[in-house]
Structures are given as structure tokens and as C-alpha cells.
């Protein structure tokens, strides 16, 4: 039986990864920050199967302790301040967690158990102002947010520890991956939650920012399997995990509404653009400039050829199924809440 330590275990990716590792017979340890009220988040349903350790990515002593307790064979660093918009409001906290926190975790591994295998959750946001389409492992980085910059540090420090100290350390450059467990502050979940509430008559309309941003969207469940595969190889390496498809936020909105039998028709341009229900003429989507980024990432589309070839990875959940799952889940959650 292997031991695995997951940081950020209560989040979307952490919960799917915990489920996967439990299915494979791992002893799973998860790092949690101490709060006044315990919040198991997305692992509430499996909390009795997980060994929780209180620690913090900004406190290397607590991470060393976590390594001593878990004696982890595999460490998955999924903890992050992961909301891009917040990274402009809290750039130093983002750097402490997403950049220096990675170094703290690597030092804890090097101190306690240097044979442990380490996975770092890198991100397509590191490509930012893209220098190549599609983006792959050799594409130059150009981050456009404090989040992207901090993640780039985490990515390079992982590579440095691999090359300097011989650690089995690798990074997965994951493109946008969503699910029913995504937080409602993220645009995809914000959309599907609003679509459900609009359908049920509980919300009037949805407000969004840049509708022309293009993203490469996959499902988190597929992507955590790629994380596991990376740590099963003979030698550590870095991999892009993506679908090689890109869609605008506008397309995501249209697809989500179609799942509740609403067809959106667009009128106007720029900040004056609105989306109307074709059947009723009611305005359901509006643009709000406050949701625009200070520096926009216009297009992300990843080339997963290396992961598909070397890891044997492939995605199983299509874009259409991803959106359908999210809308269906939010309809069920909202209906259940209203029924109470």
C-alpha cells in the first residue's frame, strides 16, 4: 500500500484525486488549514477514509511535520490561491501560497523523505499572452496575472529541484478543467449556477465580463488521472494536459442554456452586448465591465500530444458532457435547496 499526501484536498481536483487514489488502494493523507469551523468541502462524503493533517503552505515546519506523519510516497501539491481575479487584489498572499509554498513543500520532502515523488499543479495561465498556438511544453511563457506569475515560479522551482537535487518532481501544465464541484466564483460554475436559477425562476439574469475569451475546457476527473499517471513513470517530466479545443465564454453560455431548452440570441457589441431568450425576448445575459481583467488572456488551447503518447492519457468527458453535467448538478442542488 502506498501513502499519498494531497495539499488542497478539499478542492475540486483534490476531491477527485482522493477518490481515485482510494480506489487504487492508497492510504490518503490530506492537508487542511485550521479554521474556526471545520470545512471538508468536496471530500465531505469520504472524510472518514482520509487522514487529515493540519498544516499551511506558508509554514514549512508544518509541512515537514505533515511529511513525517504521512511518510508519503507520492505528494500532490494542489493547494493554491487559484482564483485569478483575486490575485490582483491579494498579490502577496498569492505569491506566498502559489510560489513560495511550492518551495516549502519541496524542502519538506527533501528534508524528510527525498525518495517521495512530487506533483506540482502548474497552469495554462502561465502562457498568458500566448506566443504559439496551440501551446505545448516548449512554448515560451508570458503570464498576465499575479496568479500566473506565482504559478510560473512554482513550475520552475519544481524543475530546479528535480535537476539540482535529483528529486522525482514533475509539473502538469493543466488547461482549464471544470466540474460539478467547481467553486461558484469561477466563470463556468457561475454560468451553470445562474442558468439553473434562471430556469427555475429564481434569478433574473447573468452578468459576465469578456465574452470573447477563449479557453480549452476539460473535466477535472479526467485531469487528475493524468496527475497520477505522471508519478508512475520511470523518469519525471512535465506535461501539458488539455483537449486541443478552444471555445469562447459566449459558447459556454449558449451550451449551458441549451441544456435547459433556452436558445440565446445576441444583440449589440462590446459592453452593450446582451443575450436574449429567443422564445420570450427577455434579456438573460448582460456585460458588466467590473468583471474584465486588468490584463486579459485572450486564447488558450493546449496540445496534449506528449501526454497522450508518453502517458497513454486521453480525456473521456467531452465539452458538451462537461457542461451538461454541471447544469444538471446545479438544477438538482437548487431545486433541493428550494424544496427545504
Automatic annotation (TrEMBL):
GO terms for biological process: 'de novo' GDP-L-fucose biosynthetic process. Its cofactor is NADP(+). Its EC number is 4.2.1.47. GO terms for molecular function: GDP-mannose 4,6-dehydratase activity; NADP+ binding. NADP(+) binds at residue 205. It comes from the Bacteria. Catalyzes the conversion of GDP-D-mannose to GDP-4-dehydro-6-deoxy-D-mannose. Belongs to the NAD(P)-dependent epimerase/dehydratase family. GDP-mannose 4,6-dehydratase subfamily. This is GDP-mannose 4,6-dehydratase. It comes from Variimorphobacter saccharofermentans. The gene is gmd.
Amino acid at each position: 500500500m502506498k501513502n499519498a499526501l494531497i495539499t488542497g484536498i478539499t478542492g475540486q481536483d483534490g476531491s477527485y484525486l482522493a477518490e481515485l487514489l482510494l480506489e487504487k488502494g492508497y492510504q490518503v493523507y490530506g492537508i487542511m488549514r485550521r479554521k474556526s469551523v471545520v470545512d471538508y468541502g468536496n471530500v465531505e462524503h469520504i472524510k472518514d477514509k482520509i487522514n487529515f493533517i493540519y498544516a499551511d503552505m506558508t509554514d514549512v515546519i508544518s509541512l515537514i511535520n505533515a511529511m513525517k506523519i504521512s511518510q508519503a510516497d507520492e505528494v500532490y501539491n494542489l493547494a493554491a490561491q487559484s482564483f485569478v481575479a483575486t490575485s490582483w487584489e491579494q498579490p502577496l498572499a498569492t505569491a506566498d501560497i502559489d510560489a513560495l509554498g511550492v518551495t516549502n513543500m519541496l524542502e519538506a520532502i527533501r528534508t524528510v523523505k527525498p525518495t517521495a515523488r512530487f506533483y506540482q499543479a502548474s497552469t495554462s495561465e502561465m502562457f498568458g499572452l500566448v506566443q504559439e498556438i496551440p501551446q505545448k511544453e516548449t512554448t515560451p511563457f508570458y503570464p498576465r496575472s499575479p496568479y500566473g506569475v506565482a504559478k510560473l515560479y512554482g513550475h520552475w522551482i519544481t524543475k530546479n529541484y528535480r535537476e539540482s537535487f535529483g528529486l522525482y518532481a514533475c509539473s502538469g501544465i493543466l488547461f482549464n478543467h471544470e466540474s460539478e464541484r467547481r467553486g461558484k466564483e469561477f466563470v463556468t460554475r457561475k454560468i451553470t449556477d445562474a442558468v439553473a436559477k434562471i430556469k427555475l425562476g429564481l434569478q433574473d439574469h447573468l452578468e459576465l465580463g469578456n465574452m470573447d475569451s477563449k479557453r480549452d475546457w476539460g473535466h477535472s476527473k479526467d485531469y487528475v488521472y493524468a496527475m497520477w499517471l505522471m508519478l508512475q513513470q520511470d523518469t519525471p517530466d512535465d506535461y501539458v494536459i488539455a483537449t486541443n479545443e478552444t471555445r469562447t465564454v459566449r459558447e459556454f453560455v449558449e451550451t449551458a442554456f441549451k441544456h435547459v431548452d433556452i436558445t440565446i440570441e445576441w444583440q449589440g457589441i462590446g459592453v452593450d452586448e446582451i443575450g436574449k431568450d429567443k422564445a420570450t425576448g427577455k434579456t438573460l445575459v448582460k456585460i458588466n465591465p467590473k468583471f474584465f481583467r486588468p490584463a486579459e488572456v485572450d486564447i488558450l488551447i493546449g496540445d496534449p500530444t506528449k501526454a497522450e503518447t508518453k502517458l497513454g492519457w486521453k480525456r473521456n468527458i467531452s465539452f458538451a458532457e462537461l457542461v451538461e453535467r454541471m447544469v444538471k448538478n446545479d438544477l438538482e442542488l437548487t431545486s433541493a435547496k428550494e424544496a427545504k
